[in-house]
Amino acid sequence: MDSAATSSIVSFAWMAYGLLSDQFAVVLATGLSATVFAVITLVALRFGRHVRELRAAPYCLAIVLIVPLAAGGGGLGTILAVSALVANVPQVVVAYRERDLTGLSPSTWALSASDGAVWLTYGIVTGDIPIMVNNFFQFSTSSAIVVRRLTWGRPQPSEA
Fold first, then answer.
1. Where does the chain hold its CATH 1.20.1280.290 domain(s)?
2. What is the fold of 82-160?
3. Structure pTM?
4. b/e 125-153 (16+ beta carbons within 10 angstroms → b)
5. pLDDT attached to residue 144
6. What is the pLDDT of residues 115-140, one digit of tens each?
7. CA 135, CA 88: separation in Å to the nearest integer?
8. CA 16, CA 6: separation in Å to the nearest integer?
9. CB < 8 Å & 24+ apart, contacts of 91-94
């Protein structure tokens, strides 16, 4: 639930970025995903999860509210540019440290990598640096997880 709440906050922040930079595609796509994540969070709360389970989401909310106020309009783009890196690096570390990756879905991470590739292309076409940087990180980290999952369980050259 904390992940859904955090994803909702980040998606709403991207929607705000899209509004500030007059990019309707960003507003529409991120607004829809923010709404989906918000509904998931609210449903989880309605059916037994507790607000006290939100650990990262309050910090994320504080950051996306305070940094733009302190750093101006460029602050939001700057923090959003690294949001995929902050979100995905812990997942990459876990994927490379865990012995059993049975529960890790390569198709979910392949979809995430594809999403990063599409938005990276959009960022390149529009010349939007925060979108380019964020989605370069999204594509790279998600691809690293896919590679790890697909090669997991295969004998390594030193084991053969």
1. 82-160
2. Monooxygenase (1.20.1280)
3. 0.83
4. eeebebbbbbbbbbbbbbbbbbebbeebe
5. 95
6. 999 999 999 999 999 999 999 999 99
7. 11
8. 15
9. 91/141, 91/145, 92/141, 92/144, 92/145, 92/148
- CA angle 29/116/20 to nearest 5° reads 45
Identify the DSSP state of 119: H
Return the amino acid letter for 143: S
CA separation for the pair 62, 82 (Å, rounded): 16
Tokens standing for 35? 């709404």
Q: Report the chain's C-alpha Rg in angstroms.
A: 17
Q: Are 84 and 145 in contact (CB under 8 A)?
A: no
- Mean pLDDT over residues 61-78, rounded? 86
Q: Under a CB-based contact definition with an 8 Å cutoff, are residues 70 and 120 in contact?
A: no
Tokens of 39: 């509904």
**pLDDT value at position 118?**
97
Q: Which residue has tokens 């309009």?
A: 73
Distance CA 37, CA 30 (A): 10
